[in-house]
Specification:
3 domains; about 300 residues; alpha+beta
């Protein structure tokens, strides 16, 4: 159940108090099956699995939620092929050209006929709110998916003024300094992955390194020619490895054996195992996010 990517938002202490209403607010926004004439449906599902009814799960001051989706798979190529076939049939049988307005009506007819038979793809987006420290932590590297999940929470609560991160220290400049000088904050070490770009132009040179020692003259030469670090592999306290982007999204997160060895060998039930893993994950991320807050000077909203 450990999150593999983190997109983050911040909220104030007063907003944290409003999260107490989640239990009563979410049932009205539960995921319903996508209708025969709908393209998609969004809503909350249980973070404990498909067979559980609870829409929140709290451990300490951390509360987990999960947003589910059902999307019809109706490729545009399928629609366009059927549309072209019907337009051609009219041209051959009636000897006339189909107008733009008629073409649109035919396309609507095609959609209405194909939608009820389209396959449905299910999705789940998990996240949790750290009410003590004001973090909304979403298990995705997609900013769009994160914003959609945040919108679902806002709709359920009526208002949820969580905001994107606003660092006072430029992540790109600070990460470039770490690689160029080897002067990293205590407990932080370079990993084996980075992405270097020339920020001068959108089409500037890009150098991507994987499974490579970053403390080398080769890497520093890229920096001397003007490239900056846009993504950087890091290891925190020998407990968590991750790739940090200049957008402050954490990707490819892995707990090291030091953390995994702290997991209990057995649990009384699946619920007890989830509680233990959630508590372990939230504690590790609390420590890491506290450091990221300090390194990049991330203010919590008032």
């Amino acid at each position: 159940m450990f999150f593999r990517n983190l997109t983050l938002f911040r909220f104030s202490a007063s907003v944290a108090d409003d999260l107490e209403r989640l239990d009563e607010a979410l049932p009205e926004h539960r995921l319903r099956p996508v209708g025969p004439m709908e393209l998609s449906s969004k809503g909350f599902v249980s973070p404990l699995g498909r067979n559980d009814e609870a829409l929140t799960h709290a451990v300490g001051r951390n509360v987990m939620v999960s947003v589910g989706g059902e999307d019809k798979l109706l490729p545009s190529a399928v629609v366009n092929d059927e549309l072209a076939s019907r337009v051609q049939k009219i041209a051959e049988e009636e000897g006339r050209k189909v107008s733009g307005r008629e073409r649109k009506r035919i396309k609507d007819d095609v959609m209405n006929e194909l939608l009820p038979r389209a396959f449905v793809r299910s999705s789940r987006m998990r996240g949790y709110a750290d009410k003590k420290n004001g973090w909304l932590v979403l298990d995705t590297s997609s900013r769009k998916s994160a914003e959609n999940t945040l919108s679902q929470i806002r709709t359920a609560l009526g208002s949820f003024p969580a905001v994107p991160l606003a660092p006072e220290e430029s992540p790109r400049i600070l990460m470039t300094h770490w690689v160029a000088t080897g002067d990293l904050p205590g407990g932080l070490a370079l990993g084996d992955e980075c992405e270097l770009r020339d920020p001068a132009t959108a089409s500037g040179a890009i150098a991507r390194c994987r499974r490579q020692d970053l403390d080398t003259d080769e890497i520093r030469e890229h920096l001397r020619t003007g490239k900056q670090v846009f993504q950087l592999g890091l290891v925190f306290d020998d407990r968590i490895s991750f790739v940090l982007g200049e957008d402050l999204i954490l990707r490819k997160i892995k707990f090291t054996d030091v953390v995994l060895d702290e997991q209990a060998d057995s649990h009384e039930s699946a619920a007890a195992e989830m509680d233990a893993n959630f508590a372990l994950m939230a504690l590790e991320y609390e420590r890491l996010l506290g450091k990221i807050e300090a390194w990049f000077k991330l203010p919590r909203p008032e």
